[in-house]
Amino acid sequence: MKNIVTSKPESSGNAKRKKRRPPRRRAAPKPIPGGPKRPDARFAAILAQIGVPEDQPFLPDPFQTEAVARLETTDVLVSAPTGSGKTWIAQQAIKQCLDSGGHAWYACPLKALSNAKFEEFGKAFGPERVGIVTGDRKENGQAPLVVGTTEILRNQLYDCMWQKTPLPYELVILDEAHYLGERERGVVWEETLIYVPASTRLLLLSATIQNTNELASWLDSIRGVECAVVASDERPVPLYPLFLYPDGQIGMLSGKKGLLQDVERCLEALGQRRGRRPPLPQYDQIIERLRRYKLLPAIFFLKSRAECDRAITQFGPKRIDPEEQAAFQRDLDDCLERYPALKDHRAMPYIVEGHVASHHAGHLPYWKVLVEQMMVKGHLDAIFATSTVAGGVDFPARTVALSQSDRFDGKEFQDLSATDLQQMIGRAGRRGKDRVGFALVIPGPFNNPKLIHQRLRSPPDAIESQIRINFSMVLNLLQSHASEEVRVLIDRSLAAFQQARRLEARRKRGGRVKKDKVDVCEALWQDFLRHKDFLQGTGFVDDEDRLTWEGQWAAALRLDHPLLVAEAIRKGSFEGAPPELVAAMIATFVVDSDRSEELDRSLTVRARDLSRRLDRMKKDLGELSKRMKDSGFEISEIPVWPALAAFLWAKGVSWTALLRAVPLEEGAMSMMIMRTADHLNQIVGLRRSHPELAETAAEAIPLIYREPVWM
Questions:
Q1: What is the DSSP letter of 619?
Q2: Digit-coded pLDDT (tens) for 596-650
Q3: Stretch among 75-79, 206-210, 288-292, 606-610 having the lowest mean pLDDT
Q4: Are 501 and 213 in contact (CB under 8 A)?
Q5: Is residue 115 part of a domain?
Q6: What is the DSSP string of 104-170?
Q7: What's the domain range around 122?
Q8: Domain limit, last residue, from 415, 437, 456
Q9: Residues 696 and 590 reside in one and the same domain
Q10: Are residues 204 and 155 in the same domain?
């Protein structure tokens, strides 16, 4: 029988009665299925494997010994999963080189990784035999082993070509060689590989990549030296993907046929709730669940820096036994003795009380070092990080937790590639400390577990050439090569090699072979000519394609915007400026984003000398900027906030006052200041052509290179 709802009669007796519709009742949302109802024997068997393996004498894996043996007679490209022991190969190669009286260069993609390797190799080979050269650090640069960034090695190759001197290294090791396919910086790796002389042995260490044989064939073709491929796809610690159900249970993510049915049902129910703002994950509860399953320590990859910082606020004091607390405090005190400015860091209470930390580019570099060291020593339950931490930083955990299936590439969010995912989950399972590792998928609005499942089973990505022409490259090549010789170098590029292979593959398949719509070599050559013609029109290159005097010193400015800095120098924009103003003016060239910061207006008014200098520099650069824009080259406006920040910092304001005047994440501020110091170092190199400016730049560097930017 239907329920009949009648309305009450209106006050007037003659009034017509209106039928009231029954109130709409929203259907209660379907409950989201929890974890598996029946015990999962496979999951239980895997959990039973958790533990620390017995201490055993180290025995290298076959791929490690093969790589070392092949390196005696050939170049070697090693492709193996993250954490599989590629550094051991490098150490053996370095030992053999040093023992024979040779010299080696170890190239890293990141300054932080360079610093870590400098410390590691100093302990292994003796500090007197190891040096470091990065944009902001130069110690013992004449040592037989030098650790540095790939950009510095590329710049040294430029100098060797110009001065016609041999590269003073018998061995060059490129760590994280898959950066060759990185969109922004891959060109540096490609240039380096083209310029390294065949007399120098090459060792490339890479995460697993698909086209190792193609890369080796390319190196064979341009160097005339065999490049052996040593590949391994076996993880030293087995990895198992898990799924976190909304009720807190944890189970397997997938089986032989794909996602488990329980996971599918859960995702279907969650999909019906889309459009509703999901609550913030209770990471403290997730950690307790992981603790119950003995899945700690863990690295959580979250969507944003802000989410990482919010996550650690959920944790209260952790109870630990006195012996563990004493070890924790001892190691923390050791770190703070090295970096005393971090004692009052705003995130310190979360490490001390909750034993958790956030780790991302918004933090000070030395804060990240402290977090990494405490994680490596086993004192932290979890680190909450953005995906940028996946590359090149070594603090593995038992579990990696994934709350997203995409990644910010600097411009937009893109689905994780197979290589991206392998880099992230490569931190799961510590060799010598774990028998098994885990990748925990946390469902949410930014996570597609089906995509993660597919990527886990996908082959690694292939590396594609990222070479492009820029003014710094053209200036440095014309310093040592005639234009036609540059054409030969372009023909030696990976881009040219890959295009030729594609055409050859089409021929082998039969049928008509159509040339690519864009000939890569021709496009690169035309872009080189476009850059060269502009340099001729602006007086940096003469009619015979040789550098003018101005072009020669401009070539020494290995910067993102060498022409703009060179134009400011030759127009006299820096003349008579004290060190703090030179630092401020240079800072405007290190930031490419169009970030608009809210500034303390009272401070900008008081910095009138800076305002006048910036106005003059803008005027001095006006003609060149217009010509660049008219010729189709990208040109950025000169931002005010970096100049003000560098000026105030050089004048001695406190770090707190600086961040209040120019509201910016301390990591971004620190990075801007370090890049400014890098650029000032380039100006210092102009002592022969501009001695006064070089001396002023040298005086400016210590004004901005102080705690907490540098400790």
A1: H
A2: 555 555 555 567 889 899 999 999 999 999 999 999 998 878 888 899 999 999 9
A3: 606-610
A4: no
A5: yes
A6: EEEEESSHHHHHHHHHHHHHHH-GGGEEEE-SS-EESTTSSEEEEEHHHHHHHHHHHHHHT---S-S
A7: 62-231
A8: 456
A9: yes
A10: yes
